[in-house]
Amino acid sequence: MEYIYERNPDTGETFRREKGNYDKKELINKNNNMEMKSLYDYLGRAAGPELGQEVANAARSAGVKGEIREVSNPKYRGPVMLWPKAFLDLYFKGGLNEGHTGKQLLKG
Question: CA-CA distance, 72 to 26, in Å (whole number)?
Fold first, then answer.
């Protein structure tokens, strides 16, 4: 079974629902203090698919888990990824490294 995780930015509550089922949500975390942001919210502009994929790859490499939020506006309708703000700060400020090689993994 595949799940979609959604976070209410006003309350910090995280919900889980089955993919494709919009009627039933399960409360997972009542008050998560980790601030989650989409790239659009973080950058103040659309990031585009290439940058979105780069961030997703970096998150996967770093073991960072994202969440999915469904959005609907005049320009886009569908899922967007949310990432911990602390991870995005490191990503865009060049603070993530590959570790033992010292080679910078990400560029902001």
Answer: 22
